[in-house]
């Protein structure tokens, strides 16, 4: 037992098992795997921070818009003050519906059929706007999903390749001592560790952000339904 302890201590002293040293001693293929996983991890974290910040801003903008919408002021005045470029998805949904409303209002309401057709067009316009805005919010989420599902296997590939190199070293030196095997195994396992480091945050963030996006999409749908009800009541009052 003491001899094995001394051997392990000797190996630790002879070889530097720091992250940088493991990378430098790794095979070219294993190095490429490590670099790819590090790049993927940094990319995923950049997406995570951007999505969290954007969703927080979108919810804040939606709350601000809802306060103005339900304040009791004129909807036409609210639409005019928004300008041609709404700054958030909920404002874009409102703007699209009001634009369609005004186009029909200019031609007048000659029959109930016109009002029914208008409601159908407004509903379609708001649905299209909601889908378009949610697609923009969801952009790059597939990168998180892909990284979460593939990074462990990429790391495993690097590990298998590193272990194969260790076996080759054993066959060349004809020495199965820990001093020959340990460095190669450590380099190989480091690739798996990097794969998990990239995959775990990506999977957790993807699930959390997807849930937040779904909740925000439901918020837009609820607003679209409420606004449709308001327009429907106004049309009924004009018939």
Structure description:
- The chain is built from eight helices and no strands.
- The protein has one domain.
- The chain is rod-shaped and about 95 Å long.
- The chain has helices at 2-14, 19-25, 28-69, 75-82, 89-107, 112-138, 141-173, 178-238.
- Helix content is 88%, strand content 0%.
- The protein has 239 residues and is mainly α.
In terms of topology, how is this protein built?
Layout: H1 2-14, H2 19-25, H3 28-69, H4 75-82, H5 89-107, H6 112-138, H7 141-173, H8 178-238
How many individual domains?
Answer: 1
Structural class: mainly alpha
What fraction of residues sit in β-strands?
Answer: under 5%
> What's the rounded overall pLDDT mean?
81
Q: What is the ordering of alpha helices and beta strands? A: HHHHHHHH
Unreliable residue stretches: 1-13
Give the N-terminus to C-terminus distance in angstroms.
96 Å
Helix content: over 70%
* Count of individual beta strands: 0
Principal-axis shape: rod-shaped
Radius of gyration over C-alpha positions, nearest whole angstrom: 30 Å
Tally of helical runs = 8
Q: Biggest sheet, in brief?
A: none
